[in-house]
Design goal:
Elements (H helix, E strand, L loop, with lengths): L5 H9 L8 H7 L3 E5 L2 E5 L10 H16 L1 H8 L3 H14 L7 H16 L17 H11 L5 H8 L16 H4 L11 H11 L14 E6 L2 E6 L7 H15 L5 H16 L2 H13 L5 E7 L13 E8 L1 H12 L1 H6 L15 E13 L8 E4 L3 H7 L1 E6 H10 L3 H6 L3 H26 L12 H4 L4 H17 L2 H5 L7 H15 L15 H16 L6 E6 L2 E6 L2 H21 L2 H13 L3 H11 L7 E5 L2 E6 L5 E7 L4 H11 L5
Parallel strand pairs: 2-12, 7-9
Antiparallel strand pairs: 1-2, 3-4, 5-6, 6-7, 8-9, 10-11, 13-14
Bound molecules: zinc ion.
């Protein structure tokens, strides 16, 4: 699970880190903005202390980064069958075109290419709608001719014809979500019904240790029969996977300890065999490998890209522990049982032994695939539930990325949407801290909490397409419930209750107003994290109405929500948490569906219009992403690696062209 959706709400409060400095200093701090186009902003992050690592550790980071980048092409192909072809064509044009580079048309082609790079394909990375070229097809064809770049007729049609492959993932219960989705997880002619039946037949009833069925394959029709094309060495994506394996093997030679080495070897075995049982064995080893300073995520991980929630998008993150910040967070993990015992959920849904939650703040050293350029800011893995229950999970907060947001953000949005001076003041003072604390609670306590009743299936089976929204809501609610608890002050994690106040203000403001800025007018809320935040905010607003817990105020045609009673609001968060835990524990599909459909999906059009109007003059980038630092290998005369140093000066375009050349393994 990841916290991708959190990034924007975080951005809103982020400038708080540089709040008390002069404008000149703020400008100085903002130099980490690398590019700004369309609705995105690209930032640069630093890896502090990289030079203090041992040579062997530096090598490990480097090899893992190479492994991660080697699979970069996979995500493009997973997202859409024409992505790689279109990307190569665009890169050919941008690299080789010698003609007029001052025209609007040319700028629009470059803009389109940047948007494709940012989204790992031709669909918006978050909204999933196809990105429309703003230049004429004829102009593009001239560029292709002059640069000897080529594109199949189908790819050209998909690029320019709005009706084709319109949306990467369609989540709409009224449609055939497999057929309607433009992603490439299911082959030509495969329908949702066929896929669901196929995977239902693979599900072993009563299996207490189920694999993540369907995670690493494309489901295709061959001679009228459904078969899985596995993503493995010798199989689909084999050429890129062989490169990943090569670098992982290098990494085993410099592993920090035996567990780390064993898990790297298991990952290689998984990529070699495509066996999901091996993937689980790897996940167990990886989850228990907590001793090293270097860690990684590599594989087919999150299933958000697939409407049926089965297919894992390729992803890699290489991490270095941030020791100081992690110390504070380990306090939470040490007290996880206290939090479970005191939670608002029903006693029968509480875990008697909450297991092995590890929470770390890390520094990202390199990202690829699903995690790049747009990135999560927190990750909790592995995803397989029984492994989490029996062997624990690892939870990390990507500290240096959060820090980079902090340097790039602005507080304009808080000022615009906060109801009063007190709210603005608390946001300035505590929102950054509050957001970090909430993230930590969400990951460490939230996802680990609660148990499923005996005999009830995993949420993916029982709650189906509502499972991830409800899971995110559950974890968020645990965080909201506890951020107001004196226990956090007692543990020395936050200085005062005002941190909780700032979080409540920000959460309600975001869930009912500001997050709508990311949605086009007329659209419903589809993304899981956004749905979850709207459910939580809208539900407590409605349930608290009779006691005026949150007051809706309209002033000069602008809407504000003012929290009148924080203690009652906390109780309401607890009430909703208890209900969502019940839904999860009992697998109550109907109740889950009602909650999501009634509170999470629909948007009040007047409010939406108002939000967009208020946000417009602020010229904010709703989405953020990052370029990676580049590792340079320094060799001695015997051709041995003597040192690895960081170069961190590529522009976004330079980096994308560089990656496109260096790690282009798939056709
Ligand atoms: Zn989560």
């Amino acid at each position: 699970m990841n916290l991708k959706g959190m990034s924007v709400s975080l951005l809103m409060f982020s400038s708080l880190l540089v709040m008390n400095v002069t404008n000149a200093q703020v400008k100085e701090e903002k130099i980490n903005i690398v590019d700004r186009f369309a609705d995105v902003q690209v930032l640069r992050y630093d890896i502090e202390g990289f030079d203090k690592l041992s040579l062997s550790q530096k090598k490990l980071v480097y090899y893992l980064a190479q492994a991660g980048l080697s699979g970069r092409d996979i995500i493009y192909d997973q997202n859409n069958a024409f992505n790689l072809e279109i990307r190569s064509c665009l890169e050919g044009i941008i690299t080789n075109y010698k003609g007029d580079k001052t025209s609007d048309n040319w700028n629009d082609v470059v803009l389109y290419a940047k948007r494709v790079w940012f989204s790992n394909g031709i669909h918006h990375h978050y909204g999933m709608d196809k990105i429309e070229p703003t230049f004429p097809k004829e102009y593009f064809q001239i560029l292709m001719k002059e640069t000897e770049s080529s594109l199949s007729r189908e790819a050209l049609s998909v690029m320019f014809d709005n009706s084709l492959d319109a949306k990467r993932k369609v989540k709409d219960a009224a449609r055939d979500m497999v057929v309607a989705s433009a992603n490439n997880f299911y082959g030509e002619g495969v329908t949702q019904e066929m896929a669901e039946k196929f995977y239902a037949s693979k599900t072993i009833k009563g299996d207490e240790h189920p694999v993540e069925i369907g995670l690493n394959s494309t489901l295709v029709l061959k001679d009228g029969k459904l078969v899985e094309e596995k993503w493995m060495s010798g199989g689909k994506y084999g050429i890129a996977i062989d490169q990943i394996i090569y670098w992982l093997k290098q990494a085993t030679t410099v592993a920090e300890n035996e567990t780390q080495k064993a898990s790297l070897l298991k990952l290689i075995e998984f990529y070699t065999t495509g066996d999901l049982k091996v993937w689980d064995e790897y996940a167990i080893l990886w989850a228990s490998s907590t001793k090293g300073d270097i860690d990684w995520i590599n594989g087919f991980i999150e299933t958000y890209g697939d409407a049926l929630g089965r297919k894992g998008s390729y992803e890699s993150i290489v991490q270095i522990t941030d020791f100081e910040a992690s110390k504070q967070m380990s306090v939470l993990a040490e007290n996880v049982q206290w939090f479970e015992d005191h939670s608002a959920i029903l006693p029968e849904h509480k875990k008697k032994n909450v297991k092995g939650v590890s929470y770390k703040v890390v520094q990202v050293a390199s990202e690829s695939g699903d995690a790049s350029p747009a990135t999560p800011i927190g990750v909790n893995l592995p995803n397989n539930n029984w492994i989490r229950e029996e062997h624990g999970s690892k939870s990390v907060s990507l500290g240096n990325l959060i820090g980079a947001y902090g340097k790039a953000g602005g507080d304009e949005i808080v000022v615009e949407f906060a109801n009063d001076e007190k709210e603005i003041e608390l946001a300035k003072k505590y929102a950054g801290k509050a957001s970090k604390m909430h993230t930590a609670l969400h990951e460490v306590i939230g996802h680990a909490s609660g148990q499923i009743n005996k005999g009830v299936g995993q949420p993916a089976e029982t709650l189906k397409n509502y499972a991830s929204t409800l899971e995110e809501a559950r974890a968020d609610l645990v965080g909201l419930y506890y951020i107001m608890d004196p226990k956090l002050i007692e543990l020395g994690l936050i200085p005062s209750k005002e941190v909780g106040v700032a979080e409540y203000d920000g959460y309600i403001r975001n869930g009912l107003l500001t997050q709508l800025q990311r949605l086009d007018l007329g659209k419903q809320v589809e993304e899981e994290h956004m749905q979850n935040r709207q459910i939580v905010a809208a539900w407590v607003f409605e349930k608290g109405m009779k006691d005026n817990v949150i007051e809706k105020i309209v002033r000069d045609g602008k809407t504000f929500y003012d929290i009148k009673d924080y203690d009652k609001l906390r109780i309401l968060f607890g009430d909703l948490l208890r209900e969502i835990q019940r839904i999860t524990s009992e697998g109550d599909y109907q109740a889950g569906k009602n909650l999501v459909e009634n509170y999470g999906v629909k948007v009040n059009q007047d409010i939406h219009k108002e939000v967009l109007k208020r946000v417009e003059p602020l010229n904010l980038a709703p989405y953020n992403g990052f370029v990676n630092p580049i590792f340079k290998v320094v060799k001695n005369e015997k051709n041995e690696i003597e040192d690895i140093v960081i170069e961190n000066n590529q522009t976004f375009e330079e980096q994308m062209l560089y990656y496109g050349k260096m790690y282009h393994f798939l056709k």
